[in-house]
Batch of 4 targets.
Target 1
Amino acid sequence: MKRLAAVLVIALAASTAGAWEAQTTQAGLAEQAALGSRLHKRLVTLGFTGGLFEPLTIPPADAPALIADLHLLSPSHGAVPDGRGRHPALAWIAAGAALADIPARHAVNHFFDPTTGRGFERPDRSIGNDLLDAIDGVSLPAHGVPAPDWVVDPHNPFNVSGFFDEYAKAVTAATPGERSRAMAGALIAAGAVLHVLGDLGAPARVRGDAAAQLDQLGGGPDDRGSRFERMAALVYGRLGVPGPSRVITRVHLRDYFTSRDGAGLADEIARTYFSPHTLPEPTRVGDETTPRLVRPQPALPAKLNLMAASRDTGTTLRDADGTCLARYKVASSTLSFSLDDDCELEQLAKILPEVTAYETGLLDFLLRGELAIAVSQQVVVSAKGLGDGTLQILVEDDRGVRRSIGTFAIKPGMETLAKVAAPTTGTRVVAMYRGVDLAGEPLVSVGALPLTTH
């Protein structure tokens, strides 16, 4: 680990970072969430037979601004589609995760402090080189939109509403080409939403420590960013990002970010880990040495090992699972705390699988809702847990073209949603409900069934 830390000192000088690195860490997190979710099965159900590996196309002429943004990314990272705008489904969700930081001013909306309810707060400390005025030419605002609000904000080009709009079109659009384009758009939006959630896995982003995003990294006066997030990119890259430790289930979208019971990702990370500028304050050693905490959690043990801390190398504060939380040392009768690369690498090994767990759960939440379809003399569509909304039933022919054969208003508590005469021709019946669930959360619920006609 010491050798690795030495390598990192050199490598960290290479470039600036404003978040989990978009094209490595964020793309890897989104891919792991997709692989662990129901997305593959849902794509196959809806007629995208290759599932996560189904080629989906956004013709460049249809979305020139999007394609231009994609070409700002590095082709070597796999987020740029081919000249026809074609990419596998899995690559589109990774591309969405990479695009969430474009334009760069949107990155300030990927913070949330559950203690204050605020997002990014412009640091007031002097860090030199006018970096409080601009990073890479981008002006830093005084405040950012809190991350849980940003994912539903109408100014966010990849918000949750945009996901549902595109997802609905991917079910109901007439032609395979239109559905392919819409599904790619839905996956881009989903990847961007996952990115915003995933950023809350970095302790500084949930502890009001925006200054940690502007730390000197060593590659010159303008090379500033989060050392913690840079290390994640260097150590795990994209393909090395771990899969989910579990899959998180929540009733409300916001609960993945923060919840009253403290079970959101921001809540968990904020109370479990220190960040560089929220460590316990330096304290003079006396008969009762009690360092002042910047935040109540993580709490310190009743007694610190001051004898071990007096050694030249100091000692380590660990959590109940043995993960390093900080180093502490006594020098010149002063107890101080710090974070080093090896300590933060231990934290990354715990945090990244947890972030993937929340992202997997959020993706499943966006895709939740299945309609049951039965066909005999009639097409019968049923489901549970739906609120107010609209049901559309479609039939697909042997060219892949879909047409509506019925639209129905749905009221809360209905289980048999609609009955319509079975079509005499066609290869597949598809149904889509759009509305809200019984918790009032937006929902697109879908179902499909191969159709046998005589």
Target 2
Amino acid sequence: MKITALVASFNRLNSTVRAVERLVAQNGSDCSIEVVLVDDGSTDGTPEAIRRLFPDVTLVETPGDYYWAASMRLAEDTALESKPDALLWLNDDVQLDADAISRLLDCHKLMPDSVIGGAMRDPHTGATTYTGYVRPGRHPMRATPVEPLHVWQRVDLLNGNLVLVPSSARHRIGPIDGGFAHAYADFDYCARARAAGVPVILAPGTFGTCPRNPPRRRPESRAEAVRELHHPKARPPASQVRYLSRHGGPEWPLYFLAPYVRLLLTGDPSGGRPR
């Protein structure tokens, strides 16, 4: 099975090198792995290190305004030129277990036309950090995390840290939407998969370590809260509209306005909920 991994990097030299190192070490008799890495304007020497240490990696450099979604779409477009059997999304801060890809492929053999995600754990505590989610109601941005079990589980959404997309599923879903500023693209892809009748699966167990991103500091003023809300890595309006109008049903404008109402009433768009 020919797999092409898609990696987006930005100023995480050490973790990016370790992530690629762990990935390429998993080439084996059951698969061959190629890597397309899009570096979005790193200034810490990441592109130079990738060229030196991994000459077989296809490296694409962008000017620093692509963020995750557009970088992954560019990586996908580049990867498809070699016609792989499957695409593998991999975050540059993931450290894969030695058998991660073989276990992911074991799940793929059971559900060959599915989008399959692998959960991550904290490197120190072992607690699950990134995983699959189920939506408890109609609101498309409210989701409950699912603990990985010893068997695969159907879920509604997946974090994009480690996701296998076979070509049969990709043809039905379409490409990663690079029109999002940064976030939302992984959840959007899973929602589109389910709408197209493609199962979204959380594979058994965890597949590596990936520390959770530190929580953003609560804003001290409404002006700061507005800037925070509009940051490309937070909830910029264009990305919210893109996601909510696609997956929120006829009431999506209410979902869009809710953070702004909370901001006016409390000064905090999260309404005091942890982020």
Target 3
Amino acid sequence: MRKATGYLFCLTAFSVLLLDSPSGDVVLSSANIPVATAAQIEDFNTTNTLLLGVKANDPVAATPAQNAKDKWKMLTLNKRNLAGIFNRYGTEAEVNNAYDWNLLIDPFEKFRFVYDLAMQNPGKTQSEWPGCIDYAKQLQRCDSKDYNGRHCLWAEISPYRYFLNTNRWFKGTHDQHCKEGEFLKRGDTVAVYGFPVTDKAHGYNPEIHPAQQIWFRYRQKTNSSKNTYFLFFIQDASDRFGNWSGSPIYGQFLIPFKGKPSPINVSLGEPLTMNITIAEKYDLVTKNFPQYSQDADDGYNHALIVDGKKIVSVNEGQSEETNRSLGIKFTDISKLPDGTIQGYVQVSMVLGDYNTDPIGVVVLELEVIKPRSNAVVNPIIR
């Protein structure tokens, strides 16, 4: 890794001067880190408590082409993160020999604004809107007769057909409804990112469509010492959204961290550690886009050091291919009044070369390991 000397490291909304670092890690002084705003604190807490400790972002703020707007009406001017309780899953045949993933979500109260905005549409036909289905009845009829009083909404996207038919996350669910995947189970929290829209074909019901980013907990590998997640970034393959999903598309996952530098010797404990691996990929081309493939420092391990203490460490394996396929940076770093440092590990990806069909998919497995009790940081572990 290179030595960072007098190098300006650009963070979200501000820049700070890096100190000398023989290891090449990102080194900051807390004196140069701005105090967190109320908006930063609220966003951090929402990400931790409602979004499973992960949020998504589109760095280029892509918007749909006119052909998509004819069928879907955007409810907001930008894409949004949304999370809730997973109710059921199914696939649905669409145009161009594509199939939608349909995830029915009972959104948390903070994200009910999507439903409320759709209610304002004068053309709405609520009898066509989906409802949450009681779990006890899902294996019976799986239709509107089983709806309860809660308001569910769809998160939908058409993944690459080969991935749809062969992926292990929703194995055996093709062309079926009221199912669950191998990993995402009824009652689990699931989070998505995309444009809130109304669907004209279904009574202007509210949806997140296409839900380009989806994530949920990998419960089999989650325990008291670590949380593990699957993070999906998918290019819609139905050719319904024009330049919104046309190659290339850009996506980011941001994982929050929090730690307080202290005089305790860092060797007494490990920092918050994140291990990121690529579980599956098609047409992942980040390496062709230096702006997004560049890491905060060289090498396969990336660490943030504040006042001489390692706050967070990120590992992306030992493969040069993986290293060039993901851009890892530390962003939106701020400090609380008590000196605690908070920020995000930003993972950038690009799908789809300019001359390829929309087949881009990447699935990340993220492992967040809690520091030992005598570590120098005290992050929120979701």
Target 4
Amino acid sequence: MTGIVVDRLNKNFGSFRAVADVSFEAEEGKITAILGPSGSGKSTVLRMIAGLERPDAGRISLAGEEQTNAPVQERRVGFVFQHYALFRHMTVRENVGFGLRVRKVGKGETVKRVDELLKLVQLAPWADRYPDQLSGGQRQRVALARALAPRPTVLLLDEPFGALDARVRQDLRRWLDDLHAELGVTSLLVTHDQEEALELANEVVVMHQGRVEQVGSPDDVYNRPATRFVAGFVGAANVLEGSMDGGRVRVADGWTSGDGGDELEEGARVHAYVRPHEISIGGDPTRLGSTTAVIERITNLGWASKLRLRLTDGQDLTADVSNDELPVPPVAEGDRVHLDLRNAKVFEVEDTPGHYAGVGAGGAGGPGVAANGDGAGSDEPAIVA
């Protein structure tokens, strides 16, 4: 059964079109992520689903009921904001029970529900503290408990971990995943963090410039990107310029191996997206996909090394290689090595202004490395070291 149906939503703010013909379905009881850079329209979509914004056109259905024009209080939606939005003058217990008191739920039932949620979010010992006496992670758990208190049909989370440091975000992601497995409430998570979306979501909606680029499982959007934007935004990727040559992509003095070029014409200019971990060093020079490069820099990360490489035509690329897979004897900066460029995703070059939004500027010969994170949505190329 479908928990949320969004059908051809549109929203303008003056002359700016924030959301353009957005459609997707979120399965009941699952977590669906809306992933995209800042300004992609994802939070506007979430606010329209919550009833905080009115769409200019389109339809919204929640749990099988038409809700496009329904007021906020009738939608049975729980909303968790990035910056908690807790009442500073209320205790944890009072914050969690606020929505129940507004709905005039009986005192006994309110106390029971609040106690149940405080135990669920592991905050019972802090029930009588105020938000300023809590850590950021604890405050976000209070916000989540408050959203869950009225037993919402749908839980909407707008960048819920964006204000927290990396370690706390990781801990809360694992905690939220376990909590959702226990509760099973239909959840829609807005985030610009690819790792967060891929780790938590059952399905991912990738947005860019107000439009949906791809809807699919985490595996689909990562390994089978439908567009060049998805290929460059979801995970890091080297973007190498080449051409079709005998059904393969020629890059510098070799070829890549991968998908997406079979239907392209001979000689067509293409961009091949190759992920850093899909590059192996010291391969057989006669093997399909093998090309040569000079190592410009090696950074040892402990279990792996990050190699900055330059191809014979001047294009730069980065490889992430397990230290166990590095050649013996060890390679050094300045060495010429053979590379296997595997699982390339291939897209024909289109000379359209602004077309390379999200593609990092590389060396003298090519586009370089696609940025991930907020920079991937910029209309100007981002230089990635």
